[in-house]
Each structure stands twice: as C-alpha cells, then as structure tokens.
C-alpha cells in the first residue's frame, strides 16, 4: 500500500504539466486492491485468533468440544462486530471532520 501511495503522487500533474489519468486510475485501483487485501487478512486473523483463544479457555475449564465451538463462534462474532462498528464510526467521523476544514 505504501508503494502505491507513493506512486500515486508520481501520476499527478506538477506545475500544470504532465500527469496521466490512466496511470492515476491504475495506481488508484491497485491501492484499493491492496487495502482490501490488508483489511480482509486482518479480519481473517482476528477470527482465527479469537477462535483459538476461546477454544483453549473453554477446554482448560473442562468444557466439551461442542461448547468450545459454540462459544468460539459467539465470541468471534462479537469481536468482529465490535471492530466493524469502530471502523464504521471512523468512516463517518473522518469525512465529517474533513468537510469542516
């Protein structure tokens, strides 16, 4: 993502000359692709980590595999829902703040 962010500036016109819309569009698409991959892999890691932690905790307490899977699914869903809500709040307040600048 950092590389594509840097490349994006190279596609912009400087001093009223240069720049390439096709290059800008291509780099911007690549930037969004890498951002989506990063976001998706982060959400995947969160679910795997929460599932493992919850299953280990339930099994350490003497719970069954079925109970561990049920609690892991609930805890993982709650964590992902909370994290998504934080992201949605950021997606609301950041544009609102930038609109007032």
Automatic annotation (TrEMBL):
<feature type="transmembrane region" description="Helical">
    <location>
        <begin position="72"/>
        <end position="94"/>
    </location>
</feature>
<keyword id="KW-1003">Cell membrane</keyword>
<keyword id="KW-1133">Transmembrane helix</keyword>
<keyword id="KW-0997">Cell inner membrane</keyword>
<dbReference type="InterPro" id="IPR036259">
    <property type="entry name" value="MFS_trans_sf"/>
</dbReference>
<keyword id="KW-0472">Membrane</keyword>
<keyword id="KW-0812">Transmembrane</keyword>
<protein>
    <submittedName>
        <fullName>Major facilitator superfamily nitrite extrusion protein</fullName>
    </submittedName>
</protein>
<feature type="transmembrane region" description="Helical">
    <location>
        <begin position="28"/>
        <end position="51"/>
    </location>
</feature>
<dbReference type="GO" id="GO:0005886">
    <property type="term" value="C:plasma membrane"/>
</dbReference>
């Amino acid at each position: 993502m950092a590389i594509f962010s840097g490349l994006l500036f190279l596609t912009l016109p400087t001093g009223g000359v240069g720049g390439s819309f096709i290059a800008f569009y291509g780099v911007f698409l690549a930037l969004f692709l890498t951002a989506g991959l990063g976001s998706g892999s982060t959400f995947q890691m969160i679910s795997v980590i929460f599932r493992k932690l919850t299953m280990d905790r339930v099994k350490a307490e003497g719970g069954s595999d079925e109970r561990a899977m049920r609690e892991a699914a609930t805890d993982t869903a709650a964590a992902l829902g909370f994290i998504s809500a934080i992201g949605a709040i950021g997606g609301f307040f950041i544009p609102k703040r930038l609109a007032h600048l």
